[in-house]
From TrEMBL:
InterPro entries linked to this entry: Thioredoxin-like_fold, Thioredoxin-like_sf, Thioredoxin_domain
Keyword Signal: yes
Pfam families the record matches: Thioredoxin_4
Single GO molecular function: oxidoreductase activity
Source species of the chain: Marinobacter daqiaonensis
Keywords for the protein's UniProt record, in alphabetical order: Disulfide bond, Membrane, Oxidoreductase, Redox-active center, Signal, Transmembrane, Transmembrane helix
PROSITE patterns from the UniProt entry: THIOREDOXIN_2
SUPFAM superfamilies tied to this protein: Thioredoxin-like
Thioredoxin domain segment(s): 48-208
Spans traversing the lipid bilayer: 23-43
Protein name, per record: Thioredoxin
Length: 240
């Protein structure tokens, strides 16, 4: 029956077919996915070095007291124009996430001699394995493998953070790194670097640093620690 004849006979247009519920759900999910991807882009895109989004400090903000750097562990030229300082806890999840940005900083800015990086131990009281982890990094440093152990501790954080015997795992990491494990274990057992770690913590207290990770580029604290903001602020400071 033709449409005209059907209308004449029935007096109404043919009802339109409604899309199936499955198709509607798929369309809704597609729009949601687009919104999530767009949101992630705007949240993670690197700000321009001159962008107003980047953290600033007033001109009269005092410089970081460089004499305190001796209580941290440093890498890079002493006369670098830009110094990045991190106060962190090896058992802190947010610090483990920032560790990738710190490693990239060392590769792209520290190794070419543009930036100096100083890491301060700030083990939080609620993290039972934070001090032993800081000790493991410093004991590895006695054999010139501080940064290798530093990176390994953050990469393997989920494996040792709740362990009742983290030192056994740290000893295995030391062996993997080719260290003299007997010397490493003696260093750990004697708590050789406990005072160094406490001195580093005292620097944080003196500067009223209470959260981890706290990251400063020269004297500018980052409010969104991560590679996007870190690299943008570093570039801005290098260009000044």
């Amino acid at each position: 029956m033709g449409e005209a004849k059907r209308r004449k006979k029935e007096g109404a247009p043919a009802p339109k077919e409604k899309p199936s519920r499955k198709v509607s759900v798929l369309i809704g999910l597609a729009f949601l996915l687009v919104a999530i991807v767009t949101g992630l882009y705007y949240l993670t895109r690197p700000p321009a070095p001159g962008s107003g989004e980047l953290p600033q400090v007033s001109a009269d903000t005092p410089s970081f007291p460089q004499e305190l750097d001796r209580f941290g562990v440093s890498v890079g030229p002493e006369d670098a124009k830009v110094v990045v300082r991190e106060f962190a806890d090896y058992q802190c999840p947010a610090c483990a996430r920032f560790a990738e940005a710190a490693q990239r900083l060392k590769e792209e800015y520290v190794e070419p001699g543009k930036v100096r990086f100083v890491f301060f131990d700030l083990p939080l009281r609620q993290h039972n394995n934070a001090v032993p982890a800081a000790m493991a990094a410093r004991c590895a440093g006695d054999q010139d493998q501080y940064w290798a152990m530093h990176d390994r501790l953050f990469a393997e954080q989920s494996a040792w953070e709740t362990s009742d015997n983290p030192q056994q795992m740290f000893s295995e990491y030391a062996e993997d790194l080719g260290l003299d494990t007997r010397r490493f274990n003696r260093c750990m057992d004697s708590e050789l670097h406990l005072e160094d770690i406490e001195n580093s913590r005292q620097v944080a207290m003196q500067l009223k640093v209470a959260s981890t990770p706290t990251v400063l580029v020269n004297n500018i604290p980052l409010n969104r620690p991560g590679w996007a903001q870190l690299s943008a602020v570093v570039e801005r400071e290098l260009s000044r």
